[in-house]
Amino acid sequence: MLPRAHADGVDSEGSVKLRDATADDLPLLAEWNHQLIRDQRSPNPMSVAELEERMRGWLAAEYRAVVFELGPEPVAYGVFRPAEDGVHLRQFFVVRHLRRQGVGRRAIEAFRERHVPPGAALTLEVLSHNERGLAFWRALGFREEKRSFRWPPSPAV
Q1: Could you state, in order of their start, the residue ranges of all structural domains in the chain?
Q2: From CA 93, how far away is CA 108, in angstroms rounded?
Q3: E strand or H helix at 77, and its extent?
Q4: From the CB of residue 104, how many other CB atoms can be counted at a distance below 10 Å?
Q5: Which of 9, 89, 91, 135 has its CA 20 to 30 A from that of 122?
Q6: pLDDT tens sequence across 4-27
């Protein structure tokens, strides 16, 4: 069960703050997940309602979610879980009107400080055609370690 909403706010320097996502955040996270899917041109056909149910299931199992805020405004989110050598970030999204303004960088810095122990790795995947995403992660110092390939499913008959 997810806790009820609370907010950490923003510090005097205007940094991005993070808090654990709550059940109250699920509709927003699902809407943002839907935007993320569209922005990265993913073939995922799920509706916002389906994404909300999937998120609810993930958070009831091994995943956690955080909401990043500038003052009282939610501006980004991340979904993550423990991994063999650290933390795996499954989803990361910044609202469209605040991209390319340092919000994503500050959010990842706050996330690493709070959720990635010293000596642990932070891993993630980016769709190979998502040039903006690739550029963002590279600019933060992430490096590509592997590529995965997928044989597309046969069309339904």
Answers
A1: 17-139
A2: 11
A3: strand 73-83
A4: 22
A5: 9
A6: 233 443 343 468 999 999 999 999
In three-state secondary structure terms, 139 is helix
Spatial distance between the Cα atoms of 121 and 95, rounded to a whole number of angstroms: 26
Euclidean distance between CA atoms 117 and 79, whole angstroms: 17
Please indicate, yes or no, whether the overall pTM of this predicted structure exceeds 0.90.
Answer: no
Q: Edge-to-edge, what's the strand order for the sheet holding 86-94?
A: 17-20, 64-70, 73-83, 86-94, 121-124
Helices and strands: H and E segment counts in the chain: 4, 5
CATH annotation of 17-139: 3.40.630.30
Hey, what long-range contacts does 5-9 have (CB within 8 A, 24 or more apart)? 7/69, 7/72, 8/69, 9/69, 9/71, 9/72
CA atoms of 98 and 76, how far apart (whole Å): 9
Q: How far is it, in rounded angstroms, from Cα 47 to Cα 50?
A: 5
